[in-house]
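Dear colleague,

Following up on Tuesday's group meeting, I ran the structure prediction for the two-component complex that the binding team flagged. I've pasted the input sequences exactly as they went in, so you can double-check that nothing got truncated or mislabelled along the way. The structure tokens for the whole assembly follow below. Feel free to forward this to whoever is handling the docking comparison.

Inputs:
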Amino acid sequence: MKKEFIHIKRDKISLRIALLMPVMLMLLFGYAVNTEVDNIKTAVLDRSKTQESRQYIEKFSASGYFKITNYIFSEDELAELIDTGEVRAGIIIPESFAIDINKNENPNVEIVVDGSDPTTARTALSSGVMVSENYSQNLRNKFIDKMGIANSLSFPGVKVNVKTRYNPNLETKKFTIPGLLGVIMQNITVLLTAFAFVREKESGTIEQLMVTPVKAVEIITAKMLPFILIGMVGFFASLAICIYWFKISIVGSVTLLILLGLLFVICSLSLGMLISTFAQNQTQAMLGSFIILLPSIILTGFIFPREAMPPFVSAMGNVIPLTYFVSILRGVVLKGSNFSQLLPHVIPLASITVILLTIASLRVRKSLD
Amino acid sequence: MKSLEFAIEIDNLTKKFGDLIAVNDISLKIPKGTIYGILGPNGSGKSTTIRILCGVLHPTNGSAKVMGYDVVKSTEIVRQNLGYMSQKFTLYDDLTVEENLSFFARIYGLSKKELDERKKELIDLAGLEGREKTISKNLSGGWKQRLALVCALIHKPSILILDEPTAGVDPVSRRIFWSIIHQLANGGMTILVSTHYMDEAESCDYTAFIFNGKIMAVDKPSALIEKEGANNLEDVFISYVERASGNKIQTDFTKMKFLKKGDEVGE
């Protein structure tokens, strides 16, 4: 039994990872696991442009649930912003807003939410209705104070119409399953390559390779190709289950999805490859993979909206490739986004891939020094 | 290629790992077409020197040339000229004999035609006929070792470097292996080999003794025995170690049987 403790003590890297991981994960998850969404990015289309409408909008930002990020001039613009995921909600105020209120009538305000993320959408809807209720209540109270309760049949107030873009029934299934596809792809591909070099290191064959004129790039390419194939077969299988078993139809282009899936598979394989170049044995490769895979489930917005996370936690999600692929999957599957709408996700994903591959190649040095 | 007298030239080579000096100012010249043996206790710097020659380790000081090319500056050319086999027969266990050969052939950029030709020659040389489809994991030690050897020969190197190639191999396999080595040397190949077997060392053209990272003596085996006035190379080896370390070593294994409990050993 003493021998076992000694083994663990000697493998300092594994020991460190094993001890640090619970602390790190507790802190991260503690902040990240949060279903309370606030600061929902919102665009406002104010057709009234009056003091009244501005006061009404002010109530939205004051509630804390909404963060007004864009002032726009057309409904098309709103649709575009929601499509690209730049905003999650939109408020459309009619031209007659101020006039109606002053005539004690009820103007129709429209709240549009992005249903591809049901948690955020529900929060936006309920708090949007609540904000409007409060606003109307205030108007009514003032009106009664001024006119007395018996003097009128109609009271001023706001009528809210809600509209959900994509996933109108706010089905959680449609939100989680495309994301799940990404999570599964990531886990499998990273683990596949994480052991690629470790096995050669453990068997000593890496030394035999090093005395040959083979280049680092050649080794990496050769190691990745079979896994790219395996990864893509896995991707097709998962995609088929998503469509035929869970009956989630893909709104956008399947070809686009497959091409970006390929990019993601290459990216994950490079990540595994990088872990593999650092690890000295299989235990380290395993732990190293987990330290990246576990947080990715939480930090990438797969379950919990990233908007709800504190800035430093959501910033950590920015460096995980899966974050972008989850957005891409949701974009194509639910929203039917096209390539240019996905660019804000594709560019970082491609950049991360290039960076990972470069570092991995440099790490596969030809020297044991 | 330049016409050279020496296949390998090592000049004042030093390699340090932190405070440890593994190789201490070694100089060697290995004539073309000879079998050159390196002898020395475990940890004396044999493997380190060999790894530097293969371009796997970088020297701290000094230089080494293989076929006239500097191992640091022209690593790629050196590697094309050199076959290397380490003490753990590093082959891919889950590949067959043929697949292992083909793999290394492709790494060295052999064409399909060259490969087929070469494969036949080498399988013949190693006596592996009939085992082409055997998974290498299932080969016995002697076969594995010969497979590792011919894998290192696939690209027709002019120099072959062997790091304790026969460690843990039975006497018959050892003899088959060495007959192949001599066959290769007769064909003009230069062979550098480290070993702990004195009978093997005695069959080399030259032998160098390394101790604590330094070369103690280099000569023909017969000349070394004569110089030390010893019976065989093993006694030469032991007397060098005794002199360098200042410790007396019990030389006769059969005498050890008669040591009583409490007797001091090796003092």
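Chain B has a mean pLDDT of 85.

Cheers,
M.
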